[in-house]
Amino acid sequence: GLTSFADNGDMVMPDGTQAAVSNAQRIRDIVEEIELADQLGLDIYGLGEHHRPDYAVSDPVTVLAAAASRTEHIKLSSAVTVLSSDDPVRVYQRYATLDAVSNGRAEIMIGRGSFIESFPLFGYNLNDYEDLFNEKLQLLLKIN
Asked: Among residues 15, 72, 80, 130, which one has the fewest Cβ atoms lying within 10 Å of its Cβ?
């Protein structure tokens, strides 16, 4: 399979030049990439979650849902869902919806995140890093 963190750096064009790509275009390109991966028979595509200006995707579920309507077989997964700064009930609901839309092809990969930008963005204290993850993981497992 493939994974992407949807970084939005310059793209190399067919003539060898580099051109800036907008976040919106990068997201559309990712959906096309997932569609091609499905056509080529890859098993899974994982898409990372970031809340930084140098990454195009802050909500992988929405992008994966767009890809679900254009694919048939490939599993659609987060490359990481940053559970520590999200609500486990909402995470479950979003992925359950993706699973319904994709006819059972949704997978979730949760983690703490390698970047910490989401903590202050969503009002969490980085000193609570371990406790937040453990508490939210237990609730997500219970719901699931």
From this structure: 15
